[in-house]
Amino acid sequence: MIRKLALLVIAALVSLTLAAAAQEAAKKAPAPITLTGELVDTGCFLSKGAHGEKHISCATKCISEGMPMGLLTSGGKLYLITLDHDNPDPYNKLKEMAGKNVSVTGVVSVRAGMQGIDVTDAKLAAAEPAK
To answer: What kind and span of H or E run contains 21?
Structure first.
C-alpha cells in the first residue's frame, strides 16, 4: 500500500515538473513577425547582385527549378525563406511572386550567421516608392 502511494506521488511530481517545463518553453518561443521586401532567388542575388524588375523572369525560372528564395528588405538585409512543415501553402505561393514586393509572416531564426524566416503567411505588398 505504501509502495503504491509512493509511486503515485512520484508520478504526480514528474507530471508537474514536465508541465512546468512545457510552460516555460512556450514562454520562450519566438513570436511571428511580418517582414516586407523583394522576393529574390538567392543564387543570382548572392553571385551577381541580380534583383528587381529586370530580373523577374530569371528569378521565376531559378526559383521554379529549386533555387532557394530570399527576402531582401529595403534596409538591405537578406532572409532565407524556409518552409513551415505544418503548412507549406504560403511558401509555395511565394514561388509565383519572384521580383515582387511581398510581406512575409513567420518566426525568424539565426543559425551559424544565416538568418531565415519560417513562412506562415505571404502576400503581395504595396510597391516601394521609387528612390
So the answer is: helix 2-28
For residue 103, the cross-strand partners are 36, 123
Cell representation of residue 28 = 520562450
Nearest to 82 by CA among 74, 92, 72: 92
What are the residues whose beta carbons fall under 8 Å from the beta carbon of 122, sequence distance 6 or more? 90, 91, 93, 94, 97, 102, 103, 104, 105
pLDDT tens by residue, 49-98: 999 999 999 999 999 999 999 999 999 999 999 999 999 999 999 999 99
Numbers of helices and strands, H then E, in the chain? 4, 5
pTM: 0.75
Q: Which residues have CB under 8 Å from 124's CB, separation 6+? A: 97, 100, 101, 102, 103
CB-based contacts of 66, cutoff 8 Å, min separation 6: none
Return d(Cα 46, Cα 128) in angstroms, integer. Answer: 22
The torsion angles phi and psi of 77, rounded to 5 degrees, stand at -85, 140
CATH number of 33-124: 2.40.50
Other Cβ atoms within 10 Å of 73 Cβ, number: 12
